[in-house]
C-alpha cells in the first residue's frame, strides 16, 4: 500500500477538514447566477491514492462546474493527441504575471500559458478540430470519464448559457488573438472555439470524481481505478509543471513556495492538488479569496503541508 498507515492518515485529514470548516473568509462568485446560488457552507475533501485507496469528508457527492480546472485536463488531452511541441507552437509555458483574463500576449504573440483564459481558448480550439461540435463535445466527455475512472462527469447547460451570455472579455480575448493570428489556420470559427471553451468550463464533477482525475495525474496519466492510460507521460509531466507554476492564478508563486505541489483552482471553489506518485486531492468550497482561489481549499493545503512532508522539496 502506498500509504501504509491509512487509518491514522485519514484521521489527520479529518482533523484538517474540521479545522478549516469554520473559516468564514471570502465570497462566492457572483458573475453568473448559477455560481452566486452556491452554498458558501459547502465543503468537501476527497483523496484517491495511486493504488486506489479513497477517503471522503463532507459534501463530496455534490456536483459543481469545474470551470478553470478544465484548463489543465484540456491541455493534457490536447498534448496527448497532438504532441506537446505542436501545442506549444500556439501557447507558451511562462506565468503571465497578469490577471487570468487579461488581454496580453507573450513576445512571440502567443498566450503566455494554457492556464490563462487566452491560452485555454487556443488549446480548446486545437482539440479534434476536424470534427463537428457535437462530436468534439462527446469526445471530451468520454476522455474526462476515462480519466475519472467512470465516476461522475456531467454538463451544466445553465452554466454554459450564462457563461456565453456574460463573455464579453472572452470575446475580446478571442478577437485580439484572431487579429494577432494566434489561432491555427484550421480554426475557422471563433465562436465555435469560444463555445467549446465555455462548454468545457461547464462540465461538472464531484470531489470524489475529481479526486480520481487528480490521481490519474499523480499516477503519470494512468487511471488508478481502471489501470487505463488516459494521458501520455510527457503531457502528464508537462501539465503538472504548468500547474505548479501557473495553476493558482496570481497566487501561483506563493502557492508553490508554501505548499510546493501542482494544483489548479476554478471559480466554483474547486481545487485539485496532485502529490506525484502518491495521491490526487480534490477540495471544494465556494467562497473565494481576492485572487479567486477557494479560501478553505488554500487553508487546507497549508495545514496539510505542516502535517506531512508532501512539499516538492521536503525530501531534501
Ligand atoms: N469561466 C470563467 C471565464 O472563462 C471563469 C473561469 C475560472 O474558473 N476562472 O472567465
Tally the helices: 13
Distance between the termini: 24 Å
The mean pLDDT is: 97
Largest sheet: 5 strands, antiparallel
Q: How many domains is the backbone divided into?
A: 1
**Could you please say which CATH topology applies here?**
Beta-lactamase
Rg over alpha carbons: 18 Å
Bound molecules: glutamine
List the helices and strands in order.
Answer: HHEEEHHHHEHHHEHHHEEEH
Number of strands: 8
Helix content range: 40-55%
What portion of residues belong to β-strands? 5-15%
Family: Belongs to the glutaminase family.
Protein name: glutaminase
Organism: Panagrellus redivivus
Q: If you had to describe this structure to a student in words, what would you say it looks like?
A:
With 316 residues, this protein is an alpha+beta fold. The chain has a single domain (6-307), classed as Beta-lactamase. Helices cover 45% and strands 10% of the residues. It is built from 13 helices and 8 strands. It has helices at 6-20, 33-36, 69-82, 84-87, 117-126, 133-147, 157-165, 168-179, 190-201, 207-218, 233-246, 252-258, 295-307, and strands spanning 44-49, 54-58, 64-65, 154-155, 203-205, 263-265, 270-275, 279-284. The radius of gyration is 18 Å and the shape is globular. The protein binds glutamine (GLN). Glutamine (GLN) binds next to loops.
Amino acid at each position: 500500500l502506498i500509504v501504509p498507515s491509512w487509518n491514522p492518515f485519514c484521521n489527520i485529514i479529518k482533523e484538517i477538514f474540521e479545522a478549516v470548516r469554520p473559516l468564514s473568509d471570502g465570497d462566492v462568485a457572483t458573475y453568473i447566477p448559477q455560481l452566486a446560488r452556491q452554498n458558501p457552507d459547502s465543503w468537501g475533501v476527497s483523496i484517491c491514492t495511486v493504488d486506489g485507496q479513497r477517503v471522503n469528508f463532507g459534501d463530496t457527492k455534490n456536483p459543481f462546474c469545474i470551470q478553470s480546472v478544465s484548463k489543465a485536463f484540456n491541455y493534457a488531452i490536447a498534448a496527448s493527441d497532438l504532441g506537446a511541441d505542436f501545442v506549444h507552437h500556439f501557447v507558451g509555458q511562462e506565468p503571465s504575471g497578469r490577471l487570468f483574463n487579461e488581454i496580453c500576449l507573450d513576445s512571440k504573440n502567443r498566450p503566455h500559458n494554457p492556464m490563462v483564459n487566452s491560452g485555454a481558448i487556443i488549446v480548446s480550439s486545437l482539440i479534434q478540430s476536424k470534427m463537428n461540435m457535437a462530436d468534439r463535445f462527446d469526445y471530451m466527455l468520454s476522455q474526462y470519464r476515462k480519466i475519472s475512472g467512470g465516476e461522475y462527469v456531467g454538463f451544466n447547460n445553465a452554466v454554459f448559457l450564462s457563461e456565453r451570455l456574460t463573455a464579453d472579455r472572452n470575446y475580446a480575448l478571442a478577437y485580439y488573438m484572431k487579429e494577432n493570428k494566434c489561432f491555427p489556420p484550421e480554426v475557422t470559427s471563433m465562436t465555435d472555439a469560444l463555445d467549446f471553451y465555455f462548454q468545457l468550463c461547464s462540465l461538472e464533477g464531484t470531489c470524489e470524481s475529481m479526486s480520481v482525475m487528480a490521481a490519474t495525474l499523480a499516477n503519470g496519466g494512468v487511471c488508478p481505478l481502471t489501470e487505463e492510460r488516459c494521458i501520455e507521460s510527457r503531457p502528464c509531466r508537462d501539465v503538472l509543471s504548468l500547474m505548479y507554476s501557473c495553476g493558482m492564478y496570481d497566487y501561483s508563486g506563493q502557492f508553490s513556495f508554501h505548499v510546493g505541489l501542482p494544483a489548479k483552482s476554478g471559480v466554483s471553489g474547486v481545487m485539485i492538488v496532485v502529490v506525484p506518485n502518491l495521491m490526487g486531492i480534490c477540495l471544494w468550497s465556494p467562497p473565494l479569496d481576492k485572487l479567486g482561489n477557494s479560501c478553505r481549499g488554500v487553508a487546507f493545503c497549508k495545514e496539510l503541508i505542516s502535517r506531512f512532508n508532501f512539499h516538492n522539496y521536503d525530501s531534501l
